[in-house]
Amino acid sequence: MDTYEIKFRVNGNDETLGVRGDETLLRALRRIGYVEVKLSCEGGDCGACAILLDGVAVNACLMFAAQADGSEVTTVRGIGTEDDLHPVQEQLIEKGGVQCGFCTPGIVVSAKALLDENAAPTREDIQRGLAGNLCRCTGYKKIFESVSAAARQMTEGGDS
Amino acid sequence: MEFLRAGSVDEALAAARDGAAFVAGGTNLVPDVLFGRKKIARAVDISRLDELRYIEEADGKIRIGALATVTDLLDSELIRDAASPLYESALEFAGPLVRNRASVAGNLMDASPAADLAPPLLAQDAVVELASAEGERALPLSEFFLDYRKTAARPEELMTAIVIEPLGAEDRCAYYKLQLRRAMAIAVLGVAVALRMNGSVCADAAISLGAVAAVPYRAHAAEGHLRGREIAEAEIEAAAAAAAESARPIDDVRASAAYRKKMCGVLVRRLLRKALGMTQGVVA
Ligand SMILES: Cc1cc2nc3c(=O)[nH]c(=O)nc-3n(C[C@H](O)[C@H](O)[C@H](O)COP(=O)(O)OP(=O)(O)OC[C@H]3O[C@@H](n4cnc5c(N)ncnc54)[C@H](O)[C@@H]3O)c2cc1C
Ligand code: FES
Ligand code: FES
């Protein structure tokens, strides 16, 4: 079986690892400990594996790890830390946008990518921005409210 | 599976042999390999070939580089202004995570009957450019899809660009993707129409259909009821009926064949009326 040595940065850490040609980026990330990137459908349908690849939100399950050689990967843990949460993370907690939490890492990634491009999203913008993320618990309403509140918090700098 | 990142188009072409497949966004190929639907000996990664990622106007045409993503289509003013059915199909395509990786060429090369970008590209007389170590050739998209998931591209050929005729301000067009929900859904039916009008006379007509046959196609018989004629209700009815007649859909989990065939007529009628700015009549 062919293996390849690849290098990328994950949340600012330089990582060097050997991968099989057909190993997905999702499986490789989890194998080296980034288990906050969730493995679920492995077919692009659920968004639980969402990461930022060079700043762009993508499904880690839909690429080969070797395709990410030389890239910058950001997972949910690189978006905010426990002591310094991103407004999206803060508001998901505040507004009850988290139940089992399995979808949350992907939701945070998609929501951050949305807010980076659109500081004042409408409800429809938020729905479209999170269209690739499934949540089986919340019914989405509280997630949408959380993202909306995060947008207000970021533009007004205040709480909502 | 061997993995090789191509540093240039020439390197990609040289590596395309012995059971190799190109991988662009990977949104089709990666799960196909993971779940064993496709066995490939070598993946030739073309996703970093930035020279194939562009959308530009050249010689009165729109050139779309093979690696332009669906997100790139949405970010392009040229596409929004001069290829609005394609723009609308991009809006209805998957969700942002997939759109950020999915390439235009990958959508065509995968050759799903339901490939969303195919009907709008067909409606704008798309020509695809293919390259191999032996040379280059160009082929109308209408001759590219041969049968269910079968294309005219040889295994070693790389699609490098898709070239379309821009729509002008005087052109009338419309697009619709019939789907079970407004995101992340495979089309039940995709329809694009584009009409070049000379007063009330239709100088040229394009009607293309996806997900109602083994391949996306131009409904030539339906177009024949419009081209060169003054368009009124009777012409629209005839075109809609001919479009439905041309459909050869299948039953699947998303819809029955009979429903697809019926909706084919309904949507062609609706889109022609919409394109022409006619008030909506009662839809049968
Ligand atoms: C969750 C999900 C949702 C989706 N939703 C939609 C949707 O709404 N509408 C839709 O139409 N499709 C959809 N797709 C399918 C897919 O995303 C698209 O077809 C996409 O455009 C494929 O592009 P890619 O760059 O990812 O192709 P890849 O997966 O990289 O490649 C696909 C095929 O094309 C070949 N190939 C790629 N580029 C070239 C090239 N330049 N020259 C020659 N061969 C090439 C590959 O070898 C492979 O066989 C969806 C897929 C997923 C996983
Ligand atoms: S695990 Fe990647 S989208 Fe579901
Ligand atoms: S909180 Fe459980 S899946 Fe979203």
Offer a quick outline of the entry.
The complex is a heterodimer of chains A (160) and B (284). Chain A is an alpha+beta fold and 160 residues long.
Describe this structure in words.
The complex is a heterodimer of chains A (160) and B (284). By secondary structure, chain A is α+β, with helices and mostly antiparallel strands. Chain A folds into two domains: 3-78, Ubiquitin-like (UB roll) (Roll); 87-156, [2Fe-2S]-binding domain (DNA polymerase, domain 1), CATH 1.10.150.120. Helices cover 35% and strands 17% of the residues of chain A. Chain A is built from six helices and five strands; from the N terminus they run E-E-H-E-E-E-H-H-H-H-H. In chain A, a hairpin with a 2-residue loop joins strand 3 (50-53) and strand 4 (56-59). Chain B has 284 residues and is an alpha+beta fold. Chain B folds into two domains: 2-112 and 126-164, Uridine Diphospho-n-acetylenolpyruvylglucosamine Reductase, domain 3, CATH 3.30.465; 172-275, Enolase-like, domain 1 (2-Layer Sandwich). Chain B contains eleven helices and 14 strands. The radius of gyration of chain B is 19 Å and the shape is globular. At the A-B interface, strand 4 and helix 4 of A face strand 1, helix 2, strand 3 and helix 6 of B. Bound molecules: flavin-adenine dinucleotide and FE2/S2 (inorganic) cluster (2 copies). The site of one FE2/S2 (inorganic) cluster has 10 residues of chain A, from loops.
Structural class by secondary-structure content of chain B? alpha+beta
> What's the helix count of chain B?
11
Task: List unreliable stretches of 5+ residues of chain B.
Answer: none
Supply Rg of chain B: 19 Å
Mean pLDDT of chain B: 96
Most extensive chain contact?
A: A-B, 32 and 27 residues
H/E series of chain A, N to C? EEHEEEHHHHH
Mean pLDDT of chain A: 96
State the helicity of chain B in percent bands. 25-40%
Under CATH, the homologous superfamily of the largest domain in chain A reads Beta-grasp domain
Helical amount of chain A: 25-40%
The H/E string of chain B reads EHEHEEEHHHHHHEEEEEEEEEHHH
What's the oligomerization state?
heterodimer
**CATH structural architecture of the largest domain in chain A:** Roll
SS field, number of helical segments of chain A: 6
